[in-house]
Design goal:
Shape: elongated
Order of helices and strands: HEHHE
Strand content: under 5%
Strand order of the largest sheet: 1-2
Distance between the termini: 43 Å
Largest sheet: 2 strands, antiparallel
Number of helices: 3
Low-confidence stretches: none
Structural class: mainly alpha
Oligomer: single chain
Helix content: over 70%
Number of strands: 2
Number of domains: 1
C-alpha cells in the first residue's frame, strides 16, 4: 500500500467523522456543513491522486472525479466564508 493510499484512508476516516458529527448533531451550523464539504472534497481529490499514481481509472473518470472534488471543496469554502460571521447565530435545527 502506497503512502498516498494511506492518506486516502486517513481522509476517508476524517470525512466519516465530519459527516457523522453532522448526522448526530442536534443543531448544525453552516460553517460545520462547509467544513464537512471541504473534508469530503479533499478525500475525493486524494482518491484522484491514487488513481493517477496507480493508473486505475479512465481519463473521463479521472476528469469527473477531479471536477466533483474541486466543486465540493469550492462549495464548502464558499459556505464557510459566507457564514463565518454568523456561526454563533442561525443554525439548522434537527427535526
Amino acid at each position: 500500500m502506497t503512502p498516498v493510499a494511506l492518506l486516502v484512508l486517513f481522509c476517508a476516516a476524517m470525512a466519516a467523522i465530519a459527516v457523522g458529527r453532522l448526522v448526530v448533531s442536534e443543531q448544525r451550523e453552516y460553517v460545520d456543513i462547509g467544513t464537512a464539504l471541504v473534508v469530503v472534497g479533499i478525500t475525493l481529490l486524494t482518491t484522484l491522486w491514487v488513481a493517477l499514481e496507480e493508473s486505475m481509472l479512465t481519463t473521463v473518470e479521472r476528469l469527473l472525479l477531479a471536477a466533483v472534488g474541486v466543486c465540493v471543496v469550492a462549495a464548502g469554502v464558499v459556505m464557510i466564508v459566507r457564514y463565518w460571521d454568523q456561526s454563533a447565530g442561525p443554525t439548522i435545527a434537527r427535526e
